[in-house]
Write a structure and sequence with these properties.
The protein is built from 16 helices and 16 strands. By secondary structure, the chain is of the alpha/beta class. Bound molecules: zinc ion.
Amino acid sequence: MKPLFIRNLSQAITMADGLSPIKDAAILIEGELIKAIGPTDEITPLVPSSAQVIEAGGRCALPGLIDPHTHLVYAGNRAREFVQRLAGADYLEILKAGGGILSTVRATRAASDEELYLLARGRLLEILSWGVTTVEAKSGYGLAPDHEIRILRVAKRLSDEGWQVIPTFMGAHAVPPEFKENRKAYLDLVVEEMLPAAREVSVFCDVFMDEGAFTREETECIFGRALELGYKLKIHADELAPTGGAEVAGAWKAISADHLLHPSEEGLEAMAKSGTIAVILPATSFTLRKPYAPVQRFRTHGLKIALATDHNPGTSPTLSLPLAATIGVLAAGLTVEEALLGITANAARALGLEDRGVLAPGKRADVLILDADDPAQIFYQIGRKLTWKVFRGGREVYSAA
Ligand SMILES: [Zn+2]
């Protein structure tokens, strides 16, 4: 691969410490990594004559965006349920009536491996067009050993093809209908069979701890086994009701606690002590017309905030991380700087990835060039796709027509 020289950027937003912009910037890429970054006139003398030159023409660069919470692999859609909710039905009512997650479970179990792969790949193409170069992907629409593994293998296959997909095992997403009268047997299945089997194809273990989902006791039982097996922990915490999810995240040193609409003060304090990242999912609040995460309380506790789409067919159908972040700014009250950190450097932290999320020498050359001179345009232009070019691991993988 020829070295790549991106020059004449209005600015490179490096995210090294806050936004840390470099004005009139250039980036030299060799192989998969950033070799040098700085003002164009300082970098130019370092560029080998063999380099391919990308003339950025006053556009700005950011680290490739990172979506640290999605439910990428599933079949079907829930447009009908969307209509029901608009007519006043509540998410928990729909779930109890066999809709919600369980309708996606039926469609996912019925789909072939190839269908699931093509659906997920199609979503990744759209995600990439928004400038996103790394995507976390949870299982949780199989809810049976074979089906959960199938979903994770799809994520792994995409990852092997070069998509930066980070798989998370989430067998504890809901109790499947066949175990409705015997939760304990499903929990045993997750702990004794699914967790060991999924280990080789997943990095994280996530649990939906909430009212109508899994209890604290059940969550801790899963976490205990997951830690023994070498998983890192994530948790869907305090989304629907205050159930102590943030406290569990802190006590178990989870890498992230996600949702957090109703966290307790003790929970946030525990998260601050354990360095747990608060992942907010404002597109979900927007879709469900629910409250937003209390970001001012996160600031008070000094928590690092990341932001994700929560892409899933029920509560957040968008694939656009910039749109989710725009909702974070306009509705949840993040500053532009917090939102940008939330989808780059802090999103990388929420996935335990130290090789990306910032633009610096030695980091992966995952670079988003916006067709704009200022990254605030992402939020200001609400919903407009400003992606000009995307580089992933030093390769150009997207270019606007
Ligand atoms: Zn989720």
